[in-house]
Amino acid sequence: MSQQDEKITAEILDRLFADIAVKAQASPETSYTASLLAKAPDLPLRKLSEEVTEAVIEAMRGDKQALARESADILYHLLVVWQAAGVTADEVWQILAERQGVSGLVEKANRQKG
């Protein structure tokens, strides 16, 4: 089955995170991911911030395709930041699962108490 025929799901984020972990071991001269991680935390954080800004601009412009591209860039750079910080995707997925079905207002109020 080709990638185009395969149904794309959120599992692609797990695969991307695994790829980032592998590329973290590569040479910064041959891998963009490794070059980001070699200058962590500053460079990955700066790149994530840039991508968020670009996504906001495209959302304000109403350019759906450009927003989708910038959103993909955000996700990639966020996963690089997680890798640099030692956060696993499973840790984030667990938090999301715990929050599912809880009102955002309730969840936020509970966070402020803790």
Q: What is the H/E order?
A: HHHHHH
Strand content: under 5%
CATH architecture of the domain at 11-87, by name, is: Orthogonal Bundle
* Anisotropy-based shape: globular
Strand tally, please?
0
Distance between the termini: 47 Å
Biggest sheet architecture = none
What does this structure look like?
It is a single chain. By secondary structure, the chain is an all-alpha fold. The protein has a domain at 11-87: Orthogonal Bundle (Helix Hairpins), CATH 1.10.287.1080. It has helices at 11-23, 32-38, 42-61, 64-85, 89-99, 104-113. Helix 1 crosses helix 4. The longest helix has 22 residues, at 64-85. The radius of gyration is 16 Å and the shape is globular. The termini are far apart. The model has no long low-confidence stretch (mean pLDDT 92).
Topology:
Blueprint: H1 11-23, H2 32-38, H3 42-61, H4 64-85, H5 89-99, H6 104-113
Helix pairs in contact: 1-4, 3-4
Question: In brief, what are we looking at here?
Answer:
The chain has helices at residues 11-23, 32-38, 42-61, 64-85, 89-99, 104-113.
Write a concise keyword list for the protein shown above.
114 residues; mainly alpha; Helix Hairpins; globular
